[in-house]
Input
Amino acid sequence: MTAQRIDGNALSRQLRSALARRAAQLAAHGQQPALAVILVGEDPASAVYVRNKVRACQDNGLRSILEKYDASLGEAALLERIAALNADPGVHGILVQMPLPGHIDPHRVIEAIAPAKDVDGYSALCAGALMTGLEGFRPCTPCGCMKLIESTGQPLAGRHAVVIGRSNTVGKPLALLLLQANATVTLTHSATPDLGHHTRQADVVVAAVGRANTLTADMVKPGAIVIDVGINRRADGRLCGDVDFDRVQEVVGWITPVPGGVGPMTITMLLENTIQAAERRAAALLPSS
Ligand SMILES: Nc1nc2c(c(=O)[nH]1)N[C@@H](CN(C=O)c1ccc(C(=O)N[C@@H](CCC(=O)O)C(=O)O)cc1)CN2
Output
């Protein structure tokens, strides 16, 4: 039997209509949520993602401030711009599109963003908050994956989830979110021998390595949930994920496509975090009774 496709565009539409209502409520009280997006350089994929973020803001009642810089922008100049946006009370969220040109240290840039505005949830403070269960912004792609899994209606508690990839932005935080949902989590990576040994036992597999055909049909359990975070370009220019979609869908129960799966959900979670930042600021501005 063919798997059910988990449609990230449809789920995003549904979630974004609720987010648009929250944004409108804030705007009615003079606190329209505002996201500053900084793009350094000319990476074509980054330009597409940034355009999609700006459009998602416009479509859902958020204000976006787009700052584009040449790849030669120095690190000090970028840190100055972040300091100015940190100090601007009209800006609720700040995002620096990754990857940055090689001469800029991404860690220094991420840590320069004020924690209250770090809507990417990339800072060490957010990572620590996630680890301990404290309040803080959760990274957008892992949160999007969790929403996609939730949308299947399958419980996670007691299930075995295997994450492929240990990046700071996806694999590690996602493993923690799955753990918080009471899944038993295996975090695999490039030095894991016999990956299939792990994935064949999994009720949920999330592939986040950035290499096409990392997960093939012989590596999955019938009925499993498969979430594909990868974005790769085939020789013919078409996008594909890390999963051999056509064959894996014949075995598993649920699967996300690429495009149209995790990508749009990443942007939806960014809107959620930005609105949350604006809501927190509005609450802080309320006169205490
Ligand atoms: N500061 C950040 N940088 C990067 C992040 C991030 O969350 N914050 N994640 C990725 C890229 N990314 C978000 O920026 C992202 C990737 C893909 C999509 C998306 O909607 N993809 C579409 C296809 C788009 C296309 O035609 O290429 C889909 O999958 O349907 C959105 C956001 C790295 N950098």
